[in-house]
Input
Amino acid sequence: MNDTDKQRDQFVIALHELQRLHDASIAKGRFLENVVQGRETVSFPVVERCREAMLQLKQAQHGFDQRFSEVLVHPNADQGALETMSAAVARSAEQAGRHLHIILSWVPTTPHRSMEG
Output
């Protein structure tokens, strides 16, 4: 395998990783949106899942940002498509942050107690 083939293979692998991180970011953002819009029933365990989803979204966004510059400089990179993916990841993270803030505002400030007497 020559250097050109190796570079192309590395580019394809990095591009697939970008797509995976993009998809993960969008999915986590959708989960938070579903909770805010009432398509997912809110409960204390769901609030914890929301926090976890936000952490995972931020992790995916960080990984995406790390790989993005690596892929963007490749001569075969579709810069328009990559910029669109990058904007979608950033938008998802921003909206998810607002949604998490809303969800956390619903959590009572007193400790959760069972209704049993």
User: Anything to note?
Assistant: The two ends are 73 Å apart (CA to CA).
